[in-house]
Design brief:
The protein is globular, with a radius of gyration of 20 Å. Helix 2 (75-88) packs across helix 3 (96-109). It has seven helices and 18 strands. The strands form two sheets. Strands 1, 2, 3, 4, 5, 6, 7, 8 and 18 form a nine-stranded antiparallel sheet that branches. 45% of the residues are buried. With 339 residues, it is of the alpha+beta class. Helices cover 22% and strands 30% of the residues. Bound molecules: pyridoxal-5'-phosphate and 2-OXO-4-methylpentanoic acid (COI).
Length: 339
């Protein structure tokens, strides 16, 4: 390593790394794309991303293994999810191969910024796809930009694998059922800022949302999906809703819980009044990894999961998932992409 970074104390902050990938779409096609050292984007002032939010993003990580190699985790899933987000906002899809190749190029070009094995830190990749060019009416852009930049990161929630309290955002909706909640688009996050700020100011890790129709069923955290493990230790449940983001981490956890730990898994409605069926719960996502949920506060009630510490099954699933990501545990076929 030649760069001077305190790998063990990284949070989740932007860093201007040497290289990012950039590609433009014009007249119906993508250009070849290239790496650049310029971290500034120059776009027309009437670009639809700036006014009407026509843009999508992704988040994935590159991991350093014990032998020093670098690998991406399920980058094909991020590529496909960005295609779904593109469809939702009438943007051209980035081909899956182009997305994967770009992610590999960025990880490789910035390889000295992939944190050392054993620090728990990773290189976070942030792909974005935005509508640019002259366009002042409310209509899809005629030109698009796809870029991937990167930065080394530690934990997203304070302390990482530490039981964290969440607050039900009962007076807020993040997304609507027929809206954009299932797509990874900026507006969902703009809509979560108020509730997130309120939750942080009151000592919670983040806000957790209820369904926008009944305000009864759990949706997700502003930056991660929810899962709970029932008191008998046999079932892992996670909310089913069209307005939550289909988390790559969540589907990986569902798979591992079932195939490696023999749990029954189900995507189903989870009422805020039925939290007492769970003895463990977690918030899961690329940035969040698995953050154990200590308690959920809903109005005057606070429900604590188990004894408020990291549950045994949550720990097992965390170890299995991160073991796979860092190359210590055998991965299911197709989950790992060496750079
Ligand atoms: N839910 C939201 C709102 C998110 O922003 C994220 C992060 O990407 C997730 C869930 C977790 O998704 P993934 O596991 O694909 O990172
Ligand atoms: C991710 O986990 O990759 C995300 O995009 C969450 C983000 C809000 C930091």
């Amino acid at each position: 390593m030649t760069v001077n970074i305190d790998w063990n104390n990284l949070g989740f902050e932007y860093m201007n790394l040497p290289y990012r990938y950039i590609s433009y779409w014009k007249d119906g096609q993508w250009d070849d794309g290239k790496l650049t050292d310029n971290n500034m984007l120059t776009i027309n002032e009437s670009s639809p991303i700036l006014h009407y939010g026509q843009g999508a993003f992704e988040g994935l990580k590159a991991y350093r293994t014990k032998s020093g190699k670098v690998q991406l985790f399920r980058v094909d899933r991020n590529a496909k999810r960005m295609q779904n987000s593109a469809d939702k906002l009438l943007m051209p899809q980035v081909p899956v191969d182009k997305f994967i190749d770009a992610a590999k190029q960025v990880a490789k070009a910035n390889e000295e910024y992939v944190p050392p094995y054993g620090t728990g830190a990773t290189l976070y990749l942030r792909p974005i796809l935005i509508g640019i060019g002259e366009n002042i009416g409310v209509s899809p852009a005629k030109e698009y930009l796809f870029t991937i930049f990167a930065m080394p990161v530690g934990s997203y929630f304070k302390g990482g694998m530490v039981p964290t309290k969440f607050l039900v955002a009962d007076n807020f909706d993040r997304a609507a059922h027929f809206g954009t909640g299932g797509a990874k688009v900026g507006g969902n996050y703009a809509a979560s800022l108020q509730a997130g700020k309120y939750a942080h100011e009151h000592g919670y890790g983040d806000a957790i949302y209820l369904d926008p129709i009944h305000h009864e069923y759990l949706e997700e955290v502003g930056s991660a999906n929810f899962f709970g493990i029932t008191k008998d230790g046999k079932r892992l449940l996670t909310p089913k809703s069209p307005s939550i983001l289909p988390s790559v981490t969540k589907y990986s956890i569902l798979d591992l819980a079932k195939t490696r730990f023999g749990l029954e898994t189900e995507e189903t409605q989870i009422s805020i009044h039925d939290l007492d069926q769970f003895s463990e719960a977690g918030a899961c996502g690329t940035a969040a990894v698995i953050t154990p949920i200590k308690s959920i506060t809903y109005g005057d009630d606070e429900y604590t999961f188990g004894d408020g510490e990291i549950g045994p099954m949550t720990q097992k699933i965390y170890d299995e998932l991160t073991g796979i990501q860092f190359g210590d545990v055998k991965a299911p076929e197709g989950w790992i992409f060496p750079i």
